[in-house]
Amino acid sequence: MQSVFGQRISGLSVDGRELRAAVFNENEVRAAAGMTMVIGAIAFSYAYFQQQYLPLQVVASFFFVEFLIRVTVGLRYSPIGLVARAMMSGRPPEWVSAKPKRFAWMLGLGMTFAMTIITNSGIRGYLPRTICLICLTLMWMESALGLCMGCQIHGWLVRRGWVTKDPAFEVCAGGACEIPAATPAGETFVGAGG
């Protein structure tokens, strides 16, 4: 069954726990991150080595549209998401909750919006290249390491009490959205053998 954002799959369970919220295939997410990283790296190379910013302008604008589609309707409807889905069609899916990815993509949307404004306003030099390097690093971490920094940031915000735990954040890659159980004041955890 298809939902507007992510996929809802009845009876889907991960680690013996049935998932109620929408999900994405982590393999597709990581493939999409790898493709955006490669495209961004090419544009960055032109800006850095040849001081040609037109590729960076085009890529920033394209990525803004890409992330806008991901945030509103999901990865499977974005141009890079379509290619990622085709690339990963032979691999078994690894399901993760859709909302943590949406949070991460909202951060990406903000950065690509800033890059689109900056590069199309004629700003050159360190500012656009630095933002581009940050984006490339985040995409590399997602694609190569499976580390979703947006998911990590959300988990950190929840642990600090700055945002509430969303029940739709059920399973994140690498346990990034796991919130440790609260213990009563003064109680300490004693592990096995202690």
Characterise the protein shown here.
This protein is mainly alpha-helical and 194 residues long. The chain has helices at residues 26-50, 54-72, 79-87, 98-120, 126-145, 149-159, and strands spanning 13-14, 17-18, 23-25, 95-97. A two-stranded antiparallel sheet has the order 1-2. Strand 1 and strand 2 (17-18) form a beta hairpin. Helix 2 packs antiparallel against helix 4. The protein is globular, with a radius of gyration of 19 Å. It starts with 12 loop residues before the first strand and ends in a 35-residue tail after the last helix. The model is unreliable at 188-194 (pLDDT under 50).
Strand content: 5-15%
Q: How many runs of DSSP E, i.e. beta strands?
A: 4
> What is the straight-line distance between the termini?
48 Å
User: For the report, how would you describe the main beta sheet?
Assistant: 2 strands, antiparallel
Task: Give me a quick take on this structure.
The chain has 194 residues and is mainly alpha-helical. Helices cover 55% and strands 5% of the residues. The chain contains 6 helices and 4 strands.
Task: Provide key terms for this protein.
single chain, 194 residues, mainly alpha, two-stranded antiparallel ribbon, two-stranded antiparallel sheet, 6 helices, 4 strands, 5% strand, globular
